[in-house]
Specification:
Elements: E1 2-6, H1 10-21, E2 26-30, H2 33-42, E3 47-51, H3 59-67, E4 77-81, H4 87-96, E5 100-103
Parallel strand pairs: 1-2, 1-3, 3-4, 4-5
Helix pairs in contact: 2-3
């Protein structure tokens, strides 16, 4: 299983990558939505885990690009945030095309 982690906070990204490494065959870490979209042009992934708030391209906008691409729209996406944690943001994440929304503590 290949997992793409999209996280601009280096500490959080490295921690998530370390946690998932034992459960997946390969994890790739990028720092924002633009980097994720570029990586998706050249590599296939089984799962995307992404923060919401990032520079250059946020998680919501990244999801829209992925869901509008016939080659990528099947990939499950977990979106998470420490800032956007109320039920409205969870609902919005699901409406944008995330499969799950997780509150980051």
């Amino acid at each position: 299983m290949k997992t793409l982690i999209v996280e601009d906070n280096k500490t959080s990204g490295k921690l998530l990558k370390a946690l998932l490494k034992s459960k997946t065959n390969q994890t790739v870490l990028v720092e924002n939505g633009l980097e994720a979209l570029e990586k998706l042009k050249h590599t296939t992934f089984d799962l995307i885990i992404s923060d919401v708030q990032m520079p250059q391209l946020d998680g919501f906008t990244m999801i829209l690009h992925i869901r509008n691409n016939a080659h990528l729209k099947h990939i499950p996406i977990i979106l998470y945030s420490a800032i956007y944690t109320n039920i409205n943001f969870e609902q919005m994440a699901l409406e944008y095309g995330a499969n799950r929304f997780v509150k980051k503590d």
